[in-house]
Amino acid sequence: MQHDFFKYQAQTTQFAAGFEVEKAVGSYIYGKDGKKYLDFVAGVSANTLGHSHPKIVNAIKTQAEKYLHVMVYGEYAQEMPVKLCKLLADSTPEPLEVTYLVNSGAEAIDGALKLAKRYTGREEIISFHNSYHGNTHGALSVSGNEYHKREFRPLLPMVSFIHFNEDKDLEKITEKTACVLLETIQGAAGFLVPNDDYLKKLKARCEEVGALLILDEIQPGFGRTGKLFAFEHFGIVPDILVMGKGMGGGVPVGAFMSSEKIMHSLSHSPKLGHITTFGGNPLIAAASYATLKEVLESGLMNEIDEKEKLFRDLLVHPKIKNINGKGLMLAVNLGSPEFTLDVAKRCMERGLVVFWQLYRNEYLRISPPLTLSLEEIREGCEIILKVLNEN
Ligand code: PLP
């Protein structure tokens, strides 16, 4: 199978692992090599409840027996997407109320940008250096890493970049700005957390000049930091909230959420301001609804602080420079990209899946299922420490 993977499936790099998966259950992935691997990555912050959670699997099966796709987004009232949108409204602060369901994080970013331009009637977008928002032309345009953009220009015009956590850059947000887009916790940059009052200052500046604040919570979304969304730690509410990855519990989904007033502007002048065939697909919505309900009702979010603390207590070693992040999105600085990639490889050989941060390869990524037990945290950290002790 590996041969056919490399030959027929388009590759994103020249050094993919090509690991062959037999099945995945709970915190473990089982390889075709007959070994089991503890998963500290969760499909890059996607498998919120671990692998093949029975409630998600049952929700998908139940929906599959009723109907699959019946109509494009927005025409028919289908139970699962409606329930998901209503539960999201009930679980987030005002004025967040109305959710547009799409197929991926990048599409949700594109939709959010279009919504902000349409609602404000303005053209300028402000984003952040070292941000990552996805790979469609729109999402790439607002991502702040030149290496990944250079070969694909021209991209969207009227986009400028400011520095994360830099108060003086806030002046660059003006009456011409349609929206300011940022990740609440910068992911690819190494899980950078905003300084104490930074988001409050940013929100105040946006309000002062009438720009919309869009928060990309595609990674923290659905409980990863101990709150349903990370902005809840910082005393602000965005005008538009973007989610994806972890909201699906393992199925492809994205969404952007706003007030009724703002979201309404996508339905007129022009009508069909954003359309999608499969957005809100009932199978996907059933999985996402089951994920959301379980995250809200299981008490899992209350365990995140303890799990983060255990990681931080265990991962102490002269080769670990520092650990960034919050909750179960942690980035462990091992000093150099080469060493980090080598550690990840050796962890895999010993039965532990870890990864690295997209732009900052010297950071080892830890973004496990939220359901990971304390015992499993100990088991995985022991492997990391053994590997670090090897040379
Ligand atoms: N925004 C952030 C912060 C992400 O981490 C990602 C994916 O890694 C995206 C956007 C894009 O999401 P997707 O890969 O589902 O298009």
From TrEMBL:
<dbReference type="GO" id="GO:0030170">
    <property type="term" value="F:pyridoxal phosphate binding"/>
</dbReference>
<dbReference type="InterPro" id="IPR049704">
    <property type="entry name" value="Aminotrans_3_PPA_site"/>
</dbReference>
<keyword id="KW-0663">Pyridoxal phosphate</keyword>
<dbReference type="InterPro" id="IPR015421">
    <property type="entry name" value="PyrdxlP-dep_Trfase_major"/>
</dbReference>
<dbReference type="GO" id="GO:0008483">
    <property type="term" value="F:transaminase activity"/>
</dbReference>
<keyword id="KW-0808">Transferase</keyword>
<dbReference type="InterPro" id="IPR015422">
    <property type="entry name" value="PyrdxlP-dep_Trfase_small"/>
</dbReference>
<dbReference type="Pfam" id="PF00202">
    <property type="entry name" value="Aminotran_3"/>
</dbReference>
<dbReference type="InterPro" id="IPR015424">
    <property type="entry name" value="PyrdxlP-dep_Trfase"/>
</dbReference>
<comment type="similarity">
    <text>Belongs to the class-III pyridoxal-phosphate-dependent aminotransferase family.</text>
</comment>
<protein>
    <submittedName>
        <fullName>Aminotransferase class III</fullName>
    </submittedName>
</protein>
<dbReference type="InterPro" id="IPR005814">
    <property type="entry name" value="Aminotrans_3"/>
</dbReference>
<dbReference type="GO" id="GO:0042802">
    <property type="term" value="F:identical protein binding"/>
</dbReference>
<dbReference type="InterPro" id="IPR050103">
    <property type="entry name" value="Class-III_PLP-dep_AT"/>
</dbReference>
<keyword id="KW-0032">Aminotransferase</keyword>
